[in-house]
Amino acid sequence: MTLTTQFYTMLAMAGMGAWLGASLDTYTRFVVRSKTARWLLFLHDFLFWVVQGLLFFYVLLSVNEGEFRIYIFLAVMLGFAAYQSLFKQVYIKLLEWMISFFIFISRLVSKMMRMMVFRPVVWTFQAILAIILFTMRNIYVLFRFFAVCLYKILKFAGYPIYFILYQCCRLLPAPVRGLLRRFLQKGAGFFEKGKKLFITIKAKLLKK
């Protein structure tokens, strides 16, 4: 191994030591150890150190083809100590700023999604529902109007027939008139039940 390769290896390992310090601070910032289950915490720690080991080996393999020397561990410790004493506070402040920035961006995007997607859908649904209810009420009003008009027309046009039938009924025998009166009373009762049902349906429609 040449001196140049050794020098590059020391620089790379010192940089990886600083990277390890920053990674540990980032890991402890996002993983709350007191609120995480032990098995999940063990899994997180295991994956963290596996990833760090693979990164160290990849960098070492790229610099000096994976040869280990004692000074490599010293360089890692030097980089880690330099990070702890010189760059830790700056990095933590930068990390907190980045977290706050991404939280702000995520909230802004969420608010824009609600304003541009969800609210228009809700407003459209409410508008369609209001149009349907308005149309149903107008249809009911028109139906009621035409029904009243038709009833008055039939009542006016059928009055002569009613007068003739009434006079004919007076000429019938008393038992036949009694039977006809009971039949008409039952028909009137059925009509009253239908009228009450219609009033109930009308009240429910107007409440909606």
TrEMBL record:
InterPro entries reported in the protein's UniProt record: YabQ
Residue stretches spanning the membrane: 6-27, 39-62, 68-87, 94-110, 116-134
Any matching Pfam family: Spore_YabQ
Keyword line: Membrane, Transmembrane, Transmembrane helix
Coiled coil start-end: none
The name this protein goes by in its record: Essential protein for formation of the spore cortex YabQ
